[in-house]
From TrEMBL:
Residue positions of the active site: 186
Cofactor(s) required for function per UniProt: Zn(2+)
CDD domains: GalT
GO biological process, one term: galactose catabolic process via UDP-galactose, Leloir pathway
Domain Galactose-1-phosphate uridyl transferase C-terminal: 206-355
Binding site for Zn(2+): 72, 75, 133, 184
Domain Galactose-1-phosphate uridyl transferase N-terminal: residue ranges: 38-195
GO CC annotations on file: cytoplasm
Family note: Belongs to the galactose-1-phosphate uridylyltransferase type 1 family.
Region annotation (Disordered) ranges: 22-45
Protein name: Galactose-1-phosphate uridylyltransferase
Keyword list, A-Z: Carbohydrate metabolism, Galactose metabolism, Metal-binding, Nucleotidyltransferase, Transferase, Zinc
GO MF term list: UDP-glucose:hexose-1-phosphate uridylyltransferase activity; zinc ion binding
Length: 356
């Protein structure tokens, strides 16, 4: 992949165009009369009862909400007046979110006593998977999906190099049932100034496992799943997809590289190809489960050299528990973080295997 083409939006935000081989980005000047960017978009507040940071981002109340298709801000804007993507066409594009949860450079201060707060430093980006408003990631051709993976990889490397960024999280929310307000196929990339609670918990478990068994937790989990086989749904030479033994969601699939790597940056070219292929395979199985597209969250778990037990993997999850019913995260899940599953992981894995 050639380096992305960089430009600036009308209010100074960065935008990067990633092109397929032989293609050129067809960008135009952004001529929108956007107001100057507020330097302080959000605030971090420390919750002493949990030991976790909470992001307060009131500006996001004004973000675009379910616009009609002809006003989609992620479709190409050939006039430079109508879209976040001033271009006649594009393959994959990444830009700074206009309504970010986190923005600006800087680290976290010591917590100290009393109420602790800090500027909401970090980075929030939007990644548009294609210019096709009615498409989906599952509908991409293999080279195009590989380009999205390259864009994730590029942004991971660049954001991790920025001062104050502790974790880079690439993810996609798909479907109004999940809470999506823009239906154009897209995802987001967050650069957090702290380690997120889920990541901290998993790394703690991995360190405990290392102390007890002298091996990597994630490698051992993958080996056990492969040896058992009842929850494996797809596997190639380089990657394995399975429903985890203790799945929390009605539909949940994890994708692991067969070799230990901490993040996308460390995957070689063949592994990037293998990942894109298996990722597409899983998403296409999702869309064959029911008569309507499956709503899902896709979460890329990545780690740095400072987290040596971290094993790159993807977790895909859906709240749809049947063709007509959704699993709502109510009292036990939302208040106690105690998940109750209505289906067995083995039955979900069997269903997904049959959808090849």
């Amino acid at each position: 992949m050639t380096a992305p083409t960089r430009a600036k939006l009308a209010d100074g935000r960065d935008i990067l165009f990633f092109a397929l081989p032989g293609h050129r980005s067809q960008q135009v000047p952004d001529r929108r009369p956007l107001p100057p960017r507020d330097k302080q978009h959000s605030e971090l507040r420390f919750d002493r009862s949990t030991g976790q940071w909470v992001i307060i981002a009131a500006l996001r109340q004004d973000r675009t909400y379910k616009p009609p298709p002809d006003q989609c801000p992620l479709c190409p804007g050939p006039t430079g007046l109508t879209s976040e993507v001033p271009a006649r066409d594009y393959d994959v594009v990444v830009f700074e979110n206009r309504f970010p949860s986190l923005s600006g450079a800087g680290g976290l201060p010591p917590v100290g006593d009393g109420f602790a707060s800090a500027p909401g430093h970090g980075r929030c980006e939007v990644i548009c998977f294609s210019a096709n408003h009615t498409g989906s990631f599952a509908g991409l051709e293999a080279p195009h999906a590989r380009l999205v993976v390259e864009a994730w990889r590029h942004r991971t490397a660049e954001l991790l190099s920025q001062p104050g960024i502790e974790q880079v999280f690439c993810f996609e929310n798909r479907g109004e049932e999940i809470g999506v307000t823009l239906t154009h196929p897209h995802g987001q990339i967050y650069g957090y100034p702290y380690l997120t609670p889920r990541t901290a918990t998993m790394l703690h478990q991995a360190r405990e496992h290392r102390m007890r068994h002298g091996s990597n937790l994630f490698q051992d989990l993958l080996a056990h799943e492969v040896a058992d086989g009842s929850r494996v749904i797809a596997r190639n030479e380089l990657f394995t997809a399975f429903v985890p033994f203790a799945a929390r969601w009605p539909v949940e699939v994890h994708i692991y590289p067969n070799r230990f790597v901490p993040n996308l940056i460390e995957l070689d070219a063949d592994e990037l190809d293998g990942f894109a292929q298996l990722y597409l395979d899983v998403l296409r199985r999702f869309d064959r489960m029911y008569s309507v597209p499956l709503p899902y969250i896709s979460a890329l778990h990545q780690y740095t050299d400072a987290q040596p037990e971290g094993y790159f993997h993807v977790e895909l999850m859906s709240i749809r528990r049947s063709a007509t019913a959704l699993k709502y995260l109510a009292g036990s899940e939302s208040a106690m973080d105690a998940f109750i599953s209505d289906v067995t992981p083995e039955s979900v894995a069997e269903r997904l295997r049959d959808l090849a």
